[in-house]
Each structure stands twice: as C-alpha cells, then as structure tokens.
From TrEMBL, chain A:
Protein name, entry field: Monovalent cation/H+ antiporter subunit D
Family recorded in the similarity comment: Belongs to the CPA3 antiporters (TC 2.A.63) subunit D family.
The keyword Cell membrane is annotated on this UniProt entry: yes
Species of the source: Pseudomonas asuensis
Domain NADH:quinone oxidoreductase/Mrp antiporter transmembrane: 126-418
Cellular compartment(s): Cell membrane; Membrane
Organism domain of life: Bacteria
Alphabetized UniProt keyword annotations: Cell membrane, Membrane, Transmembrane, Transmembrane helix
Automatic annotation (TrEMBL), chain B:
UniProt entry keywords in alphabetical sequence: Cell membrane, Membrane, Transmembrane, Transmembrane helix
Membrane topology type: Multi-pass membrane protein
Regions that span the bilayer: 26-49, 70-91
Record flagged with keyword Cell membrane: yes
Domain of life: Bacteria
Protein name: Na+/H+ antiporter subunit C
Compartments it resides in: Cell membrane
Family to which this protein belongs: Belongs to the CPA3 antiporters (TC 2.A.63) subunit C family.
Keyword Transmembrane on entry: yes
NCBIfam families: PRK08600.1, PRK09094.1
Native source organism of the sequence: Pseudomonas asuensis
Length: 499, 107
C-alpha cells in the first residue's frame, strides 16, 4: 500500500492542529511553519500526478478494511490533478497572506491548513459519506476564513453563506441516507455497481437522492438558481482567502463530474444520464448571467467573482455534454480558470491598496504607484479570462467549443461567444477605468510588496505555462477523462484491489 | 412505529423549514436545528427500525445495522458544532449590524 496518497490530507491536518496547540509561537514562526507545509504539498502533489499517470487507479484502504466495507482513498488522474491545482493555488495564497493579511484575525494559518486538508480529502476520497465529512471540514474552515478580518460586510455575507451551506449539508445527509437505505453501501465504486442493477421499483427514490446530491453540489459550485450568495461572499473576503476560494466552486464541479460520471453515468441502467437534462440548460444560463453580472459589477473583486461564475457555467456545460473530449477540454480550462481567478483576486487587492480612498471601486481614482507592472499583470489575467489568444484561456474555450457535437453546439457556441464578448467589454472597461481614468490626486506612496507580486505572477504565469506544456497536458487530461468516463473499470480497480 | 416515525420527521422538517424562512436570525437558527434533528432521525431510520436487535449478527433474532448509527453519530457531532458556530455568528451579527435581521437591515 502506498502511504503517500494520504499525506496531502494528513500533512495540513496535523500542521493545522499543531498551529492551534502551539498558539504561543511567535507569529513569524507560525508563518514559516504554515508556509513550509503548504509549499511541501506542491512537490507531493506533483509526485501524485506522476504516480497516477503511470499506474492504473491506486487505492488506499484506511485501517486495511477491505474495499466495500472500509473507507478508502482513490487516486486516479482526475483527483491527482485536482490536488495539484489546490496545492499551487494554496501556496500562492499563503505567500500573499504571509505579508500581513494573516495578522488581521486570530488563527488564520490553522484554518487555512484545515481548509486545504478538507479540499484534498474531498478530491481523494472514494466514499460518499467521507466526501460529506471532508465537505464539512472545508466548509467550517471556510466559514471562519470568510469572516477573517472582521467588518460588517463580511459578517452579513458570511451569515448567508453559512446558513445556505448548512441547509445544503442537511440535504446531502438525506441523499446519503436514501442511497444507503436502498443500496446498502456508501463506497462510490460499489454504489456504481449497485445502481446499475436497480430495478424499476427503487429507481425513482434513487433518482431523487441523486438529484438532491446535484442540488448540494450545484450550491457549492454556484450554479444558476443557487449562485446569489457568491459575489457578495467572494468580493467581501480577504484577498488570500478569496484566492483560495477560487477552488471551492471547483470542488462542486469536481463532485458533479465524479458522481454523475461514476454513479449515474452511461452504464447506470435505468438511471443513466440522470443529471444531464437539468445541468445543460442551467449551466448555459449561468454562463450568460455571469457575464451580465460581470458587465454590471461596480467593484474589481465583484467583477472577478462573476468571472468565477462564468467559468463554472462553462465547465458544467462542457461536463454535461458527456463526451470524453469535452471533459478533457473542461479539465484544461479548469486548471486555467482556477489559477487565473485566484491571481486576479490577489491582484485586485494590490490595486485597491494603491488607489487610496477609491479602493477597488470601478470609478475615477488616483494614479497607481506601479501602473506598468500591475497593468501588465492585469492584462495577462484579463486576456486569459476573456479567452483571447495567445493565452491558455483561449485554448481552453476553443477545446470546449470544438468538442461540442452539432446539436449542442447550436446552443453552446452563441452563448459562449456572446458571454466572452461580454467579458471582453467588462474587463477592458475595468482595466481602462483603473489604469487610465485617473485624477490628479496623490497616489499612495508605498510600493507593492515583492512577495505579493510574486504570488500574483506565479498564478498569472499559468496562462503562458499551460500553453507551453499544452501537448503533454492535454494527453494526460485525455487519459484522465477516459478514466472518469469508464465507471466499470474504476469499480473493478477499486473493488478488486481492496479484497 | 414507522407511521409515528414518519409523522414526527414530517412535522420536524415542516416546522424547521417554516422557521428557516423567517427574517430574523434566532428563528432561522432554531429552524436549522429542527431540520438537522429530522435529518439525523431520518439517517438513523435508514438502518430500518427494529427494537431489541443487537448490532452483531447471531446475537439476537433480528440484528440492527450499526453503520447508520455510526453515521448519525458523526452527523450529530458536525451539526452540533455548526449550530454553535452559527449562534456565535448571529450574536456577532447583532453586535456589528445593530439588528438581528438576516440581511443585516432592520425593517
């Protein structure tokens, strides 16, 4: 058994606990400790990606209980790449937070580590109830992180976010209960085998449970009727927290992809393609409304929040096409959008600090202290998010467009292209307002911190790096998509290895 | 027993949902608590309702499924922690926003 698989969960979990226990440590040593742990996750997850690329699906049975009975972790290409995305994003956010944002409230580092542990756990687990537990871990850490820094805006946004997610958790439990009551298992691979054999008597109840799960994941991913909490919460959060939250909606996207490919995929008998008819129109609407929201945004962080929504809409639209090429294209776009939106959240904070009283509001303000540097970073991020060549956002969107079959393309192409046009307008307006519509007011004299700029640059460089490594990456993602879309192979690998 | 159990769950959920739709934080938190009670009971019932069954095969005529009990235990711990957190947050919201409306605006 390969023990490295559980390290991305244990490492942040233990270091978070240690940070709580050793609360008498100086804030400087806490920073070093926490940053070191987060940075360690990057080579670790790169190693996991490498392992997943070589081997077939690797499982880790906790306590050595054989597969359908015990809890187990499953490492396939998808979960490995998700863990890598999280680690890189978390490292950049941590680098930024260590420049002073962490001192704005107590226990930032411990909460940050718990959040990372929850995220990695949710990506790696192969058990439905365990997924619920990791969701709760990442949620309770995110509740506290969202309130980090205090203030009226955060409290009010946090209240909505927390109450909605608590209701979501209750519904998750109901769905888990129904599935267990009817099928007698919670292991995802085992569930997929059992669901394929379900008779017409139980099918409606299982469909209800499946759609309840869709509701829960759609709330996390911020799909159309359930996204109204997102702009306020994300725009209100402290910059490094907002950057880390860029991957939170992707947890919802990941869960939808995993559950509806594995449990309710094409082989699921009576319940095949359960979510597609709902997911497709809602995802397109989210895509359209997200870009309208971006056009109406009055603040830089709010604009970036709507960019998150647009990307969720596009990802779920691509996933609901249900083809291997489109899932692979979505994964490519997912890496790009997570890192770039994370970087844009950090960059908006730097820009806001240099604009004095005007902050991040999209109106006439003082000249920035470093307009060239910040302007170029913003330009790279904006071009990549809007999906213009030569950066990776363009290739991501192009791959998704190409993968759509003719009947769906008739809907996807116009919606995606018009919403991209909306993003171009929104981003160029925001950019020209912030950098060019300036008044004579004195700029803030302090330059941006070098580490903060480095954190932004690391995330923004994704838009170039992803283009450079596009060939091996798409090859890897193609195989990942193939792996996800063949649930029988997944079930065979998981259930045999454990026994 | 099933009927009584189902009615209890229904009443709990209905009152919980009604309270959650109120505009002030305290009823909302109460409603949330009722819903989590209902969910925990529901989860428990998924191991089928039986009395006098040991959770070990062969110990008694009927055996009780131990897994839902373990799940419920986890769910109770989590929902208890969440409720405590929401209560603290609502008190903080009252202090910071000056009223107990969920939107932070008094009517």
């Amino acid at each position: 058994m390969n023990h490295v698989i559980i390290l991305p969960i244990l490492l942040p979990l233990f270091s978070g606990a240690a940070l709580l226990l050793l609360s008498s440590m100086t804030s400087q040593s806490k920073r070093y400790f926490s940053a070191l742990t987060t940075l360690l996750l990057v080579p670790l997850s790169a190693w996991l990606v490498n392992t997943a690329a070589h081997d077939e699906i690797v499982t880790y049975t906790l306590g050595n209980w054989p597969a359908p009975f015990g809890i187990l972790l499953v490492l396939d290409r998808l979960s490995a790449i998700m863990v890598l995305i999280t680690s890189v994003l978390a490292s950049a956010a941590m680098m930024y937070a260590c420049q002073g944002d962490d001192a704005r409230g107590p226990n930032f580092h411990a909460l940050f580590q718990f959040q990372v542990a929850g995220l990695n756990g949710a990506f790696l687990t192969g058990d439905l109830f365990n997924l619920y537990v990791f969701f709760e871990i990442l949620l309770i850490a995110s509740y506290a992180l969202l309130l980090h820094g205090g203030g009226k805006e955060r409290t009010s946004a946090g209240l909505h976010y927390i109450l909605l997610n608590l209701l979501g958790s209750s519904l998750f439990l109901v769905a888990v209960g129904v599935l267990y009551g009817l099928l007698g298992t919670l292991n995802m691979a085992h569930l997929s085998v059992r669901i394929a054999q379900v008779g017409p008597d139980d099918a409606p109840l299982i469909a209800a449970a499946g759609l309840l799960l869709l509701l829960v994941f759609a709330l996390k991913a911020a799909l159309l009727p359930l996204y109204f909490w997102l702009p306020k919460a994300y725009a209100g959060a402290t910059a490094p927290v907002a950057a880390l939250f860029a991957v939170m909606t992707k947890v919802g996207v990941y869960s939808i992809l995993r559950i509806y490919a594995l449990l309710f995929g094409p082989d699921a008998g009576l319940l095949a393609h359960l979510a597609q008819p709902l997911l497709w129109p809602l995802a397109l609407l989210t895509l359209a409304l997200g870009s309208i929201g971006a056009l109406a945004a009055r603040q830089l962080q709010e604009l970036v929040s709507y960019l998150v929504l647009v990307s969720v809409g596009l990802l779920l639209a691509g996933i609901s096409l249900g083809r291997i090429e489109s899932v692979s294209a979505c994964l490519y776009y997912l890496i790009n959008t997570t890192w770039i939106t994370g970087g844009l959240f950090l960059l908006s904070d730097i820009i806001a600090r240099q604009r004095g009283e005007t902050e991040a509001r999209l109106e006439k303000g003082p000249v920035l202290r470093q307009p060239m540097l910040l302007g170029s970073l913003f330009f790279v991020g904006a071009v990549s998010m809007a999906g213009l060549p030569p950066f990776s956002g363009f290739f991501g969107k192009l791959l998704i467009l190409k993968s759509a079959p003719l009947t769906e393309a008739r809907w996807l192409w116009p919606v995606l292209l018009i919403s991209s046009l909306g993003l171009v307008i929104a981003l160029s307006r925001a950019g020209s307002t912030v950098f060019w519509r300036t008044c004579e007011d004195k700029a803030v004299q302090a330059k941006a911190n070098g580490w903060c700029l480095l954190a932004v640059a690391v995330l923004m460089s994704a838009s170039v790096v992803l283009v450079v490594v596009a060939k091996p990456l798409t090859l890897y993602l193609d195989q990942a998509a193939q792996q996800i879309m063949s649930p029988t192979a997944y079930a065979r690998a998981v259930l045999q290895e454990g026994s | 027993m099933e009927l009584l159990f189902a009615i209890t769950l229904g009443v709990l959920t209905a009152s919980g949902v009604y309270l959650m739709l109120r505009g002030r934080t305290f009823p909302v938190v109460l409603g949330m608590t009722l819903v989590t009670y209902a969910v925990n009971l529901f989860l428990f019932a998924m191991g089928r309702l039986s009395t006098g069954g040991a959770p070990i095969i062969g110990q008694s005529q009927m055996y009780a499924d131990p897994l839902p009990q373990a799940l419920v235990l986890t769910a109770i711990v989590i929902s208890f922690a969440m409720t405590a957190f929401v209560l603290v947050l609502s008190i903080r919201a009252v202090c910071e926003l000056g009223n107990d409306h969920v939107d932070g605006e008094g009517q």
